Amino acid sequence: MSLARYACDPAQSRGRRHAEAPAPTRTHFQRDRDRIVHSTAFRRLVYKTQVFLNHEGDLFRTRLTHSLEVAQLARSIARALALNEDLVEAIALAHDLGHTPFGHAGQDALDDCMKQRGGFEHNLQSLRVVDELEERYPAFNGLNLTFETREGILKHCSRANAQRIEDEQPNGVGRRFLDRTQPSLEAQLCNLADEIAYNAHDIDDGVRSGLITIEQLQEVDLFETFRADTARDFPQLQGRRLLYESIRRMLSAQVYDVIDSTRAAIEARAPANAAEARLAGPLVMFSEGMRNQSAVLKRFLLHNLYRHPQVMAMTGQAKQVVRELFAAYMEDPRRMPADFTARVDSPRAVADYIAGMTDRFAAREHERMTGRKLLS
């Protein structure tokens, strides 16, 4: 399929940090995707969780299944908009590589531990993974991905960290956070596909867990519209089939809304190429109505699922595990593998080591070092 004029063309890529000969059978972005899939950090995602911790059930989403769902949604939308599907897939598969164990609880705890040392941002950590922490090639650290993929991975970044990146890599991936410009349309698309995916699967996981019910969800217009339509079309449906079909219809409506709204925005701003698209403001978007409905759904999930007493209790234990691991490794860095122990910047080395852990490994290490089992 031919690319739109405003899509990222691999032949026009800004290249890699370390020069490499092009692959004979793959574009730059296909090569990025393949490197991500074969990375150690990608494999670890199967044991890193979203809302529910790894030991709470085998069927809840993990960072890996979430990343695959984001990639599927983003590719579908990219094809309709004639954007670069390979770049979209690479960004989607890599966007959570820097996430800590125990979901956002682990991230918040690690950020607290690093407050006086530059903090911890999981998007910046994802970039560290692909730029420095993966060890697969003889000539360089990291995966040596293209600028465009790295730009998409760095979804958010504080101004202080953006300035540090800019000082180290002038006119690089940190520049747009200082200029207040946008990333590529492919990166913008992955950001929105991420939101669509986690809202949908958190409904599914929340109902599966018993922490929220379909009856509660009927208060949310975005869900109830499609539940009512499903119940009208299939009066006999109940339980999980009713839930699945309602979510499927909701996802489809959101995808079509993004396609239609983005086409209208692109037509109005008429960028001549990918570079102009970055300067045109956000172009990949929901309609105003869908954006408002999505915000209501997110507030519902925040109050009824993410802040549910059972989730909060487990969140508190997970944070304690991360904080105590950090303190233990800072006290005696020799408890970490030699390649982390040898680094001069020990607080960042400790953060890198903990961020790379899976849920089960972090829980096991904590129990081994403290003799206490917090997560069971």
From TrEMBL:
Residues 1-29 are annotated as: Disordered. InterPro entries: dGTPase, dGTPase-like, dNTPase_2, HD/PDEase_dom, HD_domain, PHydrolase_assoc_dom. One of its GO terms (molecular function) is dGTPase activity. One of its GO terms (biological process) is dGTP catabolic process. The keyword Hydrolase applies. Residues 63-199 form the HD domain. Keywords: Hydrolase. Belongs to the dGTPase family. Type 2 subfamily. This is Deoxyguanosinetriphosphate triphosphohydrolase-like protein.
